[in-house]
Amino acid sequence: MIEYREGRDVPPEAVAQLFDTVPWARGRSPERIAKALAASDHVVTAWDGARLIGIARSLSDGEWYATIWDVIVHPGYRSRGIGREIMRRMTAFYRGRGFSYVALFSVEGREGWYEQFGYRLHPRGMRLDESAPDAG
Ligand SMILES: CC(C)(COP(=O)(O)OP(=O)(O)OC[C@H]1O[C@@H](n2cnc3c(N)ncnc32)[C@H](O)[C@@H]1OP(=O)(O)O)[C@@H](O)C(=O)NCCC(=O)NCCS
User: Fold this and answer.
1) Of ligand 1's atoms, which has the minimum distance to the CA of residue 84?
2) How far, CA to CA in Å, does 87 sit from each of 1, 61, 67, 136?
């Protein structure tokens, strides 16, 4: 049976192993993960016994703005509704509390999946390109 937990107190080594299953999160060190978890507002995890098999975490000012990051289910556990339950819990954490923006970036092709939780495409989202020249 899959168990869900909410809270930042997750072993960073287990999170590193889960991050290593997706190309864009691969190779993150447990030391940096520990700092990132401590700075996160909310962390939802899914467990198969002692094994961490899913995660989503958020950053927030606690009042108006929150962003959701690192939505990941282990490849061996996908398409069973685990990601859906993680996102349902994460979204429920923010709904109805007067937030102006609860936002996330979707990987290409996942936008429709996020719509089921109430997220909609924002046409003016912008992201810093580190290779772009700065303002001098
Ligand atoms: C995205 C991810 C977390 C989803 O986790 P999951 O546990 O497989 O998700 P669920 O089983 O709850 O939902 C997936 C299913 O929802 C259904 N679904 C797909 N699009 C849908 C939509 N628009 N509306 C409703 N249901 C949808 C499908 O049945 C889908 O199964 P499929 O992935 O085999 O096509 C997982 O695929 C993952 O870890 N991907 C790699 C990391 C990643 O890209 N994360 C997203 C970053 S933005």
Assistant:
1) 12
2) 18, 19, 12, 40
**pLDDT tens for residues 88-112?**
999 999 999 999 999 999 999 999 9
**Positions of the chain with pLDDT under 50:** none
Query: What domain range includes position 95?
Result: 2-115
State both tokens at 10: 């997750």
Q: Is the residue at 65 inside a domain?
A: yes
Q: What is the CATH number of the domain that holds 109?
A: 3.40.630.30
Residue 136 lies in a domain: no
| Confidence (pTM) | 0.96
Q: CB of 83 closer than 6 A to ligand 1?
A: yes
Nearest CA to ligand 1 atom 4: 83
